[in-house]
């Protein structure tokens, strides 16, 4: 199991993440973490902050001479503006008060519900933590999870399939393993050139209007071993764990696994992934990924495929959303803040992160091990067991426990 905790406010001194459960011996460098953080800042449509925010990374604990020690890994990410003194007074931890409380909560943000829940009269006390800045800390943790998964031959990528009303064709094939560089080279992280151009146009149009756009990313994990997650209990199902993790990302409103929603409209005879036997490789195969690589909450060994959708950001450059000033109760429009037109390209990187953290955690639960070598040995041993089981032919069907005979069942 892998656990992680983040702390930090958007305009505070910085963010911290502690990751517990990583085995010893995993190669980790600051550059690896910084590269992932830089990917998260990519994307046409992001606001001014992403241009100057440098994501200053410090490995505080848990790594020595480039390898994990098996102890908790702590990473600090400094906020550039703190260094420049811009927010030091406003976000000072020392006793004091603000001269400019935010009292015009944005509909769609955590502002008002958070003020009510915590008894605040300043929305900043809520928004500083609700901000998607927190995802930088998650992405640092995700870089560690990805490094662990690489040891098991698992790679995770994402690409943008929709921004506003601009989308890739429904039947577009998902990108192959190793396509990440090509995806990141696109300014909206979209691999379909026409859709990419339409997305850029949509962002420009929304920017002109001071508006914001939501969208959808697809996350694909290649090389996930069969057998992660379990059908035996609700909180062990890998599909449920992934859905929770994706839904926890700021502004996400929908998660779809495999063909998801479309399956609801289809007949059972065409909605599933038929199982075949590959004689040459001696393994079971599926030509389709309608189930998203998950059956009964267990990974099937095929690619994991998920789509994650976010709503348009609630902070607008031209505030038009109706709200109430909580100090005067007068009708007004929500406060204006520096913001992004869209963060959908960054959502892909954050969704990769959450997928990596969940899959790495489940891989550690199944294979265990205190060192990377032990983990790899255990995973290889299980892969061998699965291959041997697949090869073994059943001598006498009657001897197989729990064998379900459809003829028998329908006669009853
Ligand atoms: C955000 C508002 C903007 C975004 C921010 C999320 O921040 P600021 O108000 O400082 O310009 O840039 O995203 C990040 C800081 C980030 O690192 O992703 C919000 O209101 O959630």
Description:
The protein is 33% helix and 19% strand. Residues 395-400 have low confidence and may be disordered. It starts with a strand and ends with a helix. It has 2 domains: 3-98 and 105-258 and 293-367, Chorismate synthase, AroC fold (4-Layer Sandwich), CATH 3.60.150; 372-411. By secondary structure, the chain is an alpha+beta fold. A hairpin with a 2-residue loop joins β7 and β8. The protein contains 13 helices and 17 strands. The protein has a 5-stranded antiparallel β-sheet. The protein has a 4-stranded antiparallel β-sheet with strand order 1-2-6-3. The chain has helices spanning 30-40, 49-52, 80-83, 111-118, 124-130, 135-151, 180-185, 193-208, 238-247, 260-263, 344-367, 372-391, 406-411, and strands spanning 3-7, 14-20, 56-61, 63-64, 67-68, 73-78, 155-163, 166-167, 215-222, 252-257, 275-278, 283-286, 294-295, 298-299, 304-310, 322-324, 331-333. The structure holds ligand EPS. Ligand EPS binds at residues 10, 47, 49-50, 53, 131-133, 135-136, 315, 337-340.
């Amino acid at each position: 199991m892998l656990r992680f905790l983040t702390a930090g406010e958007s305009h505070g001194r910085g963010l911290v993440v502690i990751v517990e459960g990583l085995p010893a011996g995993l190669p980790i460098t600051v550059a690896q973490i910084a590269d992932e953080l830089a990917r998260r800042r990519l994307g046409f449509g992001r606001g001014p902050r992403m241009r100057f925010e440098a994501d200053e990374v410090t490995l505080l604990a848990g790594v020595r001479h480039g390898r994990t020690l098996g102890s908790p890994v702590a990473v600090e990410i400094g906020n550039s503006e703190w260094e420049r003194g811009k927010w030091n007074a406003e976000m000072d931890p020392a006793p004091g008060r603000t001269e400019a409380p935010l009292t015009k909560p944005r509909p769609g943000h955590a502002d008002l519900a958070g003020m009510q829940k915590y008894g605040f009269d300043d929305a900043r006390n809520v928004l500083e933590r609700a901000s998607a800045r927190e995802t930088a800390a998650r992405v640092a943790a995700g870089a560690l999870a990805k490094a662990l998964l690489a040891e098991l031959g698992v790679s995770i990528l994402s690409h943008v399939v929709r921004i506003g009303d601009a989308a890739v064709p429904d039947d577009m094939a998902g990108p192959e393993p190793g396509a990440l560089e090509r995806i990141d080279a696109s300014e909206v992280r979209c691999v379909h050139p026409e859709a990419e151009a339409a997305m850029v146009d949509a962002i420009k149009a929304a920017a002109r209007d001071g508006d914001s756009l939501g969208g959808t990313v697809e996350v694909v994990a290649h090389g996930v071993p069969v057998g992660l997650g379990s059908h035996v209990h609700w909180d062990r199902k890998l599909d449920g764990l992934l859905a929770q993790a994706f839904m926890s990302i700021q502004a996400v409103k929908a998660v779809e696994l495999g063909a998801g929603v479309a399956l609801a409209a289809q007949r059972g005879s065409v909605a599933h992934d038929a199982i075949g036997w590959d004689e040459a490789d001696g393994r079971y195969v599926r030509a389709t990924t309608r189930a998203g690589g998950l059956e009964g909450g267990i990974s099937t060994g095929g690619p994991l495929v998920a789509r994650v959708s976010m709503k348009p950001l609630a902070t607008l450059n031209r505030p038009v959303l109706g709200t109430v000033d909580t100090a005067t109760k007068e009708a007004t429009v929500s406060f204006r803040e520096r913001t992004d037109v869209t963060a959908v390209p960054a959502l892909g990187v954050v969704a990769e992160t959450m997928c990596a953290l969940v899959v790495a955690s489940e891989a550690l639960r199944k294979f265990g091990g205190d060192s990377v070598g032990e983990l790899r040995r255990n995973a290889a041993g299980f892969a061998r067991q699965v291959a041997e089981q697949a090869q073994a032919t059943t001598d006498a069907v009657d001897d197989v426990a729990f064998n379900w005979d459809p003829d028998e069942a329908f006669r009853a």
